[in-house]
Amino acid sequence: xxxxxxxxxxxxxxxxxxxxxxxxxxxxxxxxxxxxxxxxxxxxxxxxxxxxxxxxxxxxxxxxxxxxxxxxxxxxxxxxxxxxxxxxxxxxxxxxxxxxxxxxxxxxxxxxxxxxxxxxxxxxxxxxxxxxxxxxxxxxxxxxxxxxxxxxxxxxxxxxxxxxxxxxxxxxxxxxxxxxxxxxxxxxxxxxxxxxxxxxxxxxxxxxxxxxxxxxxxxxxxxxxxxxxxxxxxxxxxxxxxxxxxx
Length: 247
Known about the structure:
The protein is α+β, with helices and mostly antiparallel strands. It folds into 2 domains: 5-174, Transcription factor LuxR-like, autoinducer-binding domain (Beta-Lactamase, 2-Layer Sandwich); 187-241, Orthogonal Bundle (Arc Repressor Mutant, subunit A). It contains 10 helices and 5 strands, in the order ααββααβαββααααα. It has a 5-stranded antiparallel β-sheet with strand order 2-1-5-4-3. The longest helix has 20 residues, at 155-174. Keywords: DNA-binding, Transcription, Transcription regulation. It holds the Pfam family GerE.
């Protein structure tokens, strides 16, 4: 059931979701939790997957999914990952985007059009995608879809953080090797990430902490480097996951 924005606190939902993920013990539990929370935004299906190189099969890089079985079988059999405009855009941007923002030409790219048309047959006509890029070159994405989505300037930041944290939690459960950062976060780095998690801009955080916006940005950049994160949201997700900051 899609929840009205007026009666729904997106930040609270995001933080409750993140807090709940830490209590889960299996990837299957993460799938169920993601499905339940993301349904509030209108999403019916999602997939968390690596982006395969030319020699890899799509099926071998999927981490977690809640896709219609028929669609997953077709997508894998037809090797649609090579033509999917969503996947293509994921490789070239680190910013979340709506499916409608992924360009392709119906006349010159019939396979891309086929991917999008056939997805619609499985109630996957609209979507939101979070590209995930690691400093070491790792590429992945969290792609979610449905028919009637709640995508607005208010909901997208919450979805971004929720998706990033779900990805980090899934990866941790699937590969439970201990996390090793290149150095502990300083108190200022933890503070700036904590306020970023609360939705504060660098300017707002500077006012709160009594430092300049430029200094805040420098602390966040340093934290990103230590956490092997390519952006602030990924750094926040990892800092929360590994208890370097609290909500």
